[in-house]
Design brief:
InterPro entries: Glyas_Bleomycin-R_OHBP_Dase, Glyas_Fos-R_dOase_dom, Lactoylglutathione_lyase, MMCE/EMCE_epimerase, VOC_core. The protein has 170 residues and is an alpha+beta fold. It is built from 4 helices and 9 strands, in the order βαβαβββαββββα. It has helices at 21-30, 50-59, 111-120, 159-163, and strands spanning 13-17, 35-44, 65-72, 78-83, 104-107, 124-125, 130-131, 140-145, 151-155. It starts with 12 loop residues before the first strand and ends in a 7-residue tail after the last helix.
């Protein structure tokens, strides 16, 4: 038996770049119910603070300032929103076939109401709501976009339940 087996790491947060930080915080708090844990604030490029140095390490020297806000889902997953004044303000073309982050997924048992609210707040429904296992399990999913063109998915049930055999019987 391998005594050095790795344990599953937990998911901490995801960083999303948006063109309008205030509008993004409003969308994700109003539609998703995510908590604002740090209101939108400006970060300036400087070498006098730990955050300034850290941001230079991450972004390099080709920036002067950006805005950031921190949010949290009900299960404690962080959502770090960024807005850069000189960044491209349109979402990249949807191309799931290329290497890179394809989407993230959130969970809500009331998928119909959530998808309708996403659309009401300027997002887009990319497909009909579909059942994963028609007649076997009541699990549904749908791909959507936020108002900025960022693609994400909605599940009605947890990832583990959706893909495990015998997780739902009847």
């Amino acid at each position: 038996m391998d005594k050095n087996k790795e344990y599953p790491k937990s998911f901490s947060h995801i960083g999303i770049t948006v063109p309008d930080l205030e509008k993004a915080v409003e969308f994700y708090s109003e539609v998703m119910g995510w908590y604002v844990i740090m209101k939108p604030s400006k970060i300036k490029k400087e070498k006098e603070t730990a955050i300034g140095i850290m941001c230079i390490d991450v972004f390099g020297d080709d920036w002067e300032e950006f805005e950031i806000a921190h949010m949290s889902t009900s299960d404690g997953i962080g959502v770090e929103l960024f807005s850069f004044p000189h960044g491209v303000k349109e979402a990249p073309e949807f191309n799931p076939f290329n290497t890179g982050l394809f989407h993230f997924c959130i969970q809500d048992p009331n998928i119909e109401d959530l998808v309708a609210k996403i659309v009401e707040y300027g997002g887009k429904q990319r497909m009909p709501i579909r059942e994963y296992y028609p007649k076997d399990k009541p699990y549904k999913m749908c791909y959507v976009e936020d108002p900025f063109g960022i693609v994400f998915e909605v599940y009605t049930h947890s990832y583990e339940l959706t893909y495990s055999s015998g997780a739902y019987t009847g």
